[in-house]
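Thread amino acids onto this structure.
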């Protein structure tokens, strides 16, 4: 899109104590942009740094809120943030540069470079790592399950490698599914080091950041290292804001430190390559395809999709109190970056609103779903119940309320009826089949295959049955022991020094709480152990102690 459209309106700079302007936007008006961040302008709270570029030229930069609540330092466009998973595209670029030089192959078995990983009987490639199709269990979920809490002590690359190499199973056959896994990118960073002889921090600095003039960007490999100009991060609790900063040195999946201005320099590289070339960058922005032909919406370190009918390539991130996003609308040469230091911030939504002000003439918003069928409470009651994903075992509760069907045990997002047995929720359609199955159809882009959930009877174990689960359960894969006890309505789990976690019955021998636990039995019905699952880890085995 031509910048002439935006030069019609003269931007008015609005300077306040909590909004630091680095550059006057070309258009639309600065006041409109500031309103997008109206909730983050208090000097007594955290906030965001934001920037946009049009046709490769800076169009808008601003800072909102406080970078450090204890020192009363305002956020500016030059403020440095921990960018969380925005890091992944840079790790992918490092791997791609080595592949272009012929020093590794994306389709090589990762055991070539990380031989200490177990042999799962399945070939896992570097490409699987970068597209989240490896089947490797996620490192953060593994550590959280093992510790019973996440905020225990410093986490290093060695900690991650230790727990990953003890896993005896994969989540799924490599290439068969897409499931976001940070493990793949930590391993990718290790591979860069072993192939190039340089740490990812050194390699990226020499091959990516310096050539692009990203002078305020680095991979942070030392938790204790001083970084001038960096922000602190915060989590909202009942009594106000509390410090919430990542406690790890591991990087590749995360730990990029950067500014919004540097991210826009990176985005411009996709239009006019300085690092890499058009073929390499095209690969990064192409959605992976699974063995069954399904698309994933994820390329190599980048999410690929649409917003309001416009192609969008970008990535979000969230670690501790940091929330981040940068994206690009390639058809309109617009790039946006939003970095926030508050756990309650939504940089994806904020970036979308910023882009919407610039691309309003081109956007074709999808109308919000509406109820188009009028079903009686009796008709709706047929669909209430518990539905289980046969692959993951994850339960979905559908509850009938006075207002209609909702997703959840008591309250949750509404299912909007559009036919006698079809409902809309977000960007998906749910169809209740005559046999009792629930078929979920994704309506967004790129398309996905159908997902089928099977209806199950909800479990209501008696007090004596709940007591039967009590005991100690140990996982060799995690090096952890859980103490299970009965509670008034379910069970509790505790490991190490963490407080007991409460789990409620779902179906069969499965309970849900901070994660999902399914107890196992032998043919005689005797409890033998348990399988623990999260959204990114499936069925880690625990054995019941004698």
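Threaded sequence (546 positions):
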């Amino acid at each position: 899109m031509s910048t002439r459209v935006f030069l019609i309106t003269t931007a008015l700079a609005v300077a306040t104590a909590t909004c630091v302007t680095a550059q006057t936007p070309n258009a639309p008006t600065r006041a409109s942009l500031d309103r997008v961040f109206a909730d983050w302008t208090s000097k007594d709270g955290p906030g965001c740094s934001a920037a946009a570029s049009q046709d490769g030229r800076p169009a808008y930069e601003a800072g909102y809120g406080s970078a450090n609540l204890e020192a009363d330092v305002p956020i500016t466009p030059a403020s440095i943030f921990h960018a969380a998973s925005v890091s992944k595209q840079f790790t992918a670029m490092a791997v791609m540069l080595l592949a272009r030089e012929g020093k590794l192959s994306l389709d090589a078995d990762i055991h070539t470079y990380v031989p200490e990983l177990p042999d799962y009987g399945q070939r896992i490639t570097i490409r699987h790592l970068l597209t989240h199709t490896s089947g490797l269990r996620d490192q953060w979920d593994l550590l959280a399950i093992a510790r019973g809490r996440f905020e225990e002590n410093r986490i290093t690359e060695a900690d991650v490698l230790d727990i990953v190499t003890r896993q005896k199973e994969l989540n799924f056959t490599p290439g068969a599914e897409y499931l976001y896994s940070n493990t793949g990118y930590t391993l990718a960073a290790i591979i860069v080091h072993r192939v190039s002889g340089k740490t990812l921090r050194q390699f990226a600095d020499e091959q990516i950041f310096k050539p692009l003039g990203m002078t305020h960007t680095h991979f942070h490999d030392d938790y204790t290292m001083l970084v001038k100009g960096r922000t602190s991060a915060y989590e909202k609790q009942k009594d106000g804001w509390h410090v919430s900063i990542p406690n790890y040195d591991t990087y590749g999946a995360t730990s990029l430190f950067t500014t919004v201005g540097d991210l826009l320099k990176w985005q411009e590289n996709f239009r006019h390559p300085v690092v890499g070339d058009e073929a390499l960058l095209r690969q990064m922005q192409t959605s992976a395809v699974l063995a069954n032909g399904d698309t994933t919406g994820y390329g190599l370190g980048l999410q690929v999709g649409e917003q309001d009918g416009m192609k969008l390539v970008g990535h979000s991130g969230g670690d501790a109190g940091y929330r981040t996003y940068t994206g690009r609308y390639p058809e309109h040469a617009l790039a946006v970056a939003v970095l926030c230091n508050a756990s309650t911030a939504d940089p994806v939504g904020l970036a979308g609103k910023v882009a919407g002000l610039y691309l309003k003439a081109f956007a074709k918003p999808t109308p919000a779903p509406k109820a188009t069928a009028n079903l009686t409470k009796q008709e709706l009651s047929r669909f209430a119940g518990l539905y289980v994903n046969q692959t993951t075992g994850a339960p979905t509760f559908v509850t009938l309320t006075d207002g209609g069907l909702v997703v959840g045990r008591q309250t949750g997002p509404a299912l909007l009826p559009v036919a006698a047995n079809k409902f809309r929720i977000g960007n998906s359609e749910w169809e209740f089949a005559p046999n009792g199955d629930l078929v979920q159809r994704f309506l967004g882009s790129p398309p996905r295959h159908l997902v089928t959930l099977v209806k199950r009877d909800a479990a209501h174990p008696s007090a004596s049955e709940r007591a039967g689960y009590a005991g100690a359960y140990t996982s060799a894969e995690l090096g952890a022991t859980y103490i299970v006890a009965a509670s008034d309505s379910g069970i509790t789990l505790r490991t190490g020094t963490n407080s007991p976690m409460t789990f409620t019955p779902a179906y069969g021998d499965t309970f849900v709480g901070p994660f999902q636990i399914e107890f196992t039995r032998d043919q005689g019905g005797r409890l033998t152990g348990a399988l623990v699952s999260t959204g990114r880890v499936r069925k880690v085995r625990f054995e019941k102690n004698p």
